[in-house]
Design brief:
Blueprint lengths: L4 H14 L2 H13 L2 E2 H8 L3 H14 L2 E6 L2 E6 L1 H16 L6
Antiparallel strand pairs: 1-3, 2-3
Helix pairs in contact: 1-4, 2-4
């Protein structure tokens, strides 16, 4: 079996999202401290809200961060299950290209 276009796209987004120090800090904070609002996360990481939102969009598109609007706030959480799935799929792809599906 070969890597499908959709699966390849998912893995590219995942690895690109992890390829930035700021996004790794965001994920580490969410993984360690749980759900945060965008404003709380920006203050904790000392990032401007627009820059944080840009990085969160990349993480959301990669599937490792979920966001929910609650009133005027946007709450962010680390999607551990999706992260583990993508990590496992990437590992299988690299270690056994024939079983990458």
């Amino acid at each position: 079996m070969t890597l499908t276009d959709a699966s390849s796209r998912d893995l590219r987004r995942y690895y690109r999202a992890l390829g930035d120090d700021t996004r790794l800090r965001i994920l580490q904070t969410l993984a360690a401290h749980g759900e945060h609002t965008v404003s709380d996360l920006a203050a904790r990481l000392r990032l401007s809200q627009p820059l944080l939102s840009w990085h969160l969009r990349r993480l959301r598109l990669a599937g490792v961060v979920r966001t929910v609007r609650v009133g005027r706030e946007v709450r962010c959480t680390f999607d551990r299950e999706r992260f583990a799935q993508l990590h496992e799929r990437g590992f299988r792809t690299l270690m056994n290209p024939g079983a990458a599906r």
